[in-house]
Amino acid sequence: MSGYLESLSKQLLAGQHGLRLVVEKGEREILVEVALENRKQTVSISLKFHKSAGCHSLRLVSRACPVKDHKTVRAALLANSNLEFGGLCLESSTSPPVMDVFYSLVAEETPFEDVVKALVSVAQFADRIEKRMVGSDVF
Amino acid sequence: MKRTAIKATHSADSFQSGRIKAIQPEMASADLAQPVMQTEDPVAISFMTNLLRIWSFERHDLPPDFVDEVELTQLTRQPIAIVRVQVEMTSAKLENHFEPFTDQKVNDNAWPSTDVFEIRPLKIGKFPAQPLKERVRLSGQESVGTCNQCNSAGEVPCTNCDGGRVTCPDCGGTRQLICPRCGGGGIHEGVSGKLINCQLCGTRGTRRCNLCDRGQVLCSTCSGSSLLTCSQCNGAGNLLHFWIQNTVISSEEHSVGLIGEDWPVDIKCLESESTIFHVEQWNWPIVNSPGTPIQDWVPQHLHGMVKEALDDQLSKCSRDLEESERVSAVRVKLLGVFLYAVDYSYFDEPSRVYVGGLRNRVFSKRQTQKKKGLFSRVKRLGYHITNTISNYTPPVDKKYLAAIRQGQVHIGDTRCLIPAVAKAMIATADITESGYDIEVKLPRNVSFQLKFDFNSAGKAVLCFQLDLCKAERQRFSQAMEFNKRLAFGRIAVVNTEFGEMFSMVDRREYGTARPEQLVKIIRGLIADCDEIIDAKFLF
């Protein structure tokens, strides 16, 4: 799977998917800026092998908003039980801590179209949270 | 609301799909007030369509292509309320009995009550299905009296003899027995064939009876004593009087169905397939108020109906009561369930069935037949040609329908995906009301739920849930942060019957999921759960 991210970034850059994307290929991740109705949202795509699952997971993460109190954490955990797509996690290495939207796919068996669909869904969902909680378009 | 006096034109089929939570969700008594309404819930519509197909699969009055062609056009739902009134009747009678008195202890204590029902605690309020008969010897109010048969003598004259002797049964009192050799003739045929004089009786023809004494023998009944032990007091001379209480407890029941709109279904068939909201019971005396006021457990619009049903049944049971009978308990049950009117069309021909009860019983009448008109035949032919050319796949797999009927797959699992996943994981998959309970044996025992749901786009979603531990507030941030490390899924706080729990949750679109992909995801989820549990991370 060494060339998977490389190949994925090429496919994304090829622009066959009809989306407006800015792709930045790093060593371990790809950063994709997805254009959404007058707003933008950055999604990080990384690849990780999971021995227990016997597969690589393609992880899509997008920053949603800063977390200011414990109520937000509780609300996010409750929301996680019924979210239609992906989940919410806490990144406390930043100050203030932030909430990310994430989603994982089985890299080996996921068609490119499904990756694009997931990418857009993660970006839209994170941006919706950001818009509602913060209002401005930071991430 | 109307009481059920509707002519039931739709009879209850033997077909039942089993509980499907999306169609028969948990009900509360307040839901009985819901009006008749159309449902747009995609889960309910999808499952009901499949239910319709499964039901039709082996029906001979439906054409073979019904399964592929049926289209659900409208789904309407209304709650039905059922009030079941059970009345328990108790009959109690006293019987006077006696036994020989042989110096045993006499319990002459007075009974606690003069009321025959109150002498001892009766097993009332059980509403037995079959009459419960009981004969119990009562303690107390015993007395000793003389035996009126022997006047305390303990013995009575023998009725078989006179003075202890009876006429000899062999000779009848004549003391003479007929000679057994000559038969009373005095002569008999000798060896030579000539008549000879009887040597045994000396030609007298009789012999003396050796068994009796002057034609009489001792009486075998009294052994010659001419007295018999009194059979009533067994020789004791006195009798102990005691009482036996004879009780019969039986119950009668009557149900009343309450329905908003007249649908031609005998809703009493659904009584055993309804949710019980409340059971209220009054024991004797039933004039007392119930423990819980009726207003607290019966929705307001049903007050009148419940009261009427109760009064009807009570007056019916109390009408011909004898003095030894009484109504000993009353039980009122409030039940309810959703009933659906399922409108469908088959080649533009509309029809309707009703589905109700927790196990989704179908009520139908003779169904849509194959159209035989020329236009219809041409239309069907065109349809089949189109399908053949376009390599058309029917909406429902026959294998799925067969698997449903055999109880192998959940109604939402139209691709029979989960049994395949379970097989690949060497796990067992038990069908539940909302999906499956999966039990993985290796590397260690793990159980989790796979439920079916639909997303906002109306697409079926497979929901994985594995409860981890109680959700402690101080661990919320840790749990949220741990989500970064997970291969798949996320930790969520889920409200369960045990309170708020940390659970591993994952949702995947069912339509695009592949078994091998699901196996990997589930293995990853279980491994992450193991890590959390082993490290006692959230405990």
Describe the protein's architecture and organization.
The complex is a heterodimer of chains A (139) and B (539). In chain A, 32% of the residues lie in helices and 37% in strands. With 139 residues, chain A is α+β, with helices and mostly antiparallel strands. In chain A, strands 1-2-3-4-6-5 form a 6-stranded antiparallel beta sheet. In chain A, strand 1 and strand 2 form a beta hairpin. The longest helix of chain A has 22 residues. Chain B is built from 9 helices and 24 strands. In chain B, strands 1, 2, 3, 4, 5, 14, 15, 16, 17 and 18 form a 10-stranded antiparallel beta sheet that branches. Chains A and B meet through helix 2, strand 5 and strand 6 of A and helix 8, strand 23, strand 24 and helix 9 of B.
List the helices and strands and how they pair.
The complex is a heterodimer of chains A (139) and B (539).
Chain A: H1 4-14, E1 21-25, E2 29-36, E3 39-50, E4 55-66, H2 70-80, E5 87-91, E6 98-106, H3 112-133
Antiparallel strand pairs in A: 1-2, 2-3, 3-4, 4-6, 5-6
Chain B: E1 2-3, E2 11-16, E3 37-38, H1 42-56, H2 66-69, E4 71-100, E5 132-146, E6 155-157, E7 165-167, E8 176-178, E9 187-189, E10 195-197, E11 206-208, E12 216-218, E13 227-229, E14 238-259, E15 275-283, H3 294-297, H4 303-318, E16 325-346, E17 349-356, E18 361-364, H5 374-389, H6 398-405, H7 417-424, E19 427-431, E20 435-440, E21 446-454, E22 460-470, H8 476-482, E23 490-496, E24 499-509, H9 515-534
Antiparallel strand pairs in B: 1-14, 2-18, 3-4, 4-14, 4-16, 5-14, 6-13, 7-12, 8-11, 9-10, 15-16, 16-17, 17-18, 19-20, 20-21, 21-22, 22-24, 23-24
Helix pairs in contact in B: 7-9
